[in-house]
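Design request, tokens follow.
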């Protein structure tokens, strides 16, 4: 796991699997951890690294309900977990799904030392909305924005006092747009349009997978992703993948996307 100090009050951890990101945010005496790394040793290291960096953990946040973004509860079992309303609805409609998929991952990758994932008592957060951090007089409020399309749920978190956007599984430099079950091209394109406005305000964009990017690079990725999705609608399997994201793994994702679009027609 790599740790990148993006700002004095923001650290991004990048898991060695899927380059899944975890963002630690500090506002005075309060702090939140958004999403999570994957492997047990990464989760075990997270509290000590943040303690050494003097980063408090007041609570956890997740951008969406895919299992690889929910593992903060393993690192911080006593911390509250907040999610956007759509994510809470999805978790309620899919009881035990995240835990089952986590067990399948662990079985496939020979992981045998992971504590159980507890997801009871999740706090539902209004989206769009705001979440206050630290003393009110400092004006530290996270902005919550709808980010569905990759999945049927999703929340992007904008940090206005740091000009940082944590956008979940969008704008990735290593992964093409991925239509998971319940996702759709139209919803994904609508999210890209919303994210475009936030990217214009941000200096740093933290995707769900891959290193943080600057504004110009993220706008380029956004344009490529929108072009790919429109081509997916019109050309299906013949749609060209974005340059730099044409690996064998991304072609498998493309094949899944083609089947998803066909099933929706």
């Amino acid at each position: 796991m790599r740790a990148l100090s993006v700002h004095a009050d923001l650290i991004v951890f990048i898991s060695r699997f899927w380059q899944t990101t975890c963002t630690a945010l500090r506002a005075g005496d309060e702090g939140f951890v958004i999403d999570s790394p994957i492997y047990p040793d990464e989760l075990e290291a997270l509290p000590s690294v943040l303690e050494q960096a003097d980063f408090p953990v007041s609570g956890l946040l997740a951008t969406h309900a895919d299992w690889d973004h929910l593992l903060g509860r393993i690192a911080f079992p006593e911390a509250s977990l907040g999610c956007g309303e759509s994510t809470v609805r999805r978790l309620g409609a899919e009881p035990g799904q995240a835990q089952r998929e986590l067990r399948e991952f662990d079985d496939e990758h020979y992981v045998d030392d992971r504590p159980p994932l507890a997801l009871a008592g999740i706090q539902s957060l209004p989206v769009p909305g705001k979440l206050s951090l630290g003393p009110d007089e400092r004006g530290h409020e996270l902005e919550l924005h709808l980010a569905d399309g990759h999945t049927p749920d999703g929340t992007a978190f904008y940090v206005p006092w740091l000009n940082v956007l944590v956008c979940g599984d969008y704008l990735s430099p290593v992964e093409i747009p991925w239509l998971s079950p319940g996702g759709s091209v139209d919803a994904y394109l609508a999210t890209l349009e919303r994210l475009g406005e936030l990217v214009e305000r941000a200096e740093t964009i933290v995707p769900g997978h891959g290193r943080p990017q600057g504004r110009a690079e993220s706008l380029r990725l956004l344009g490529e992703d929108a072009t790919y999705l429109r081509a997916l609608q019109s050309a299906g399997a013949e749609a060209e993948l974005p340059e730099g994201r044409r690996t064998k793994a991304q072609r498998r994702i493309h094949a899944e996307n083609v089947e998803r679009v066909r099933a929706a027609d």
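Comment from the thread starter after seeing the answer: thanks! The CA atoms of residues 131 and 142 lie 5 Å apart.
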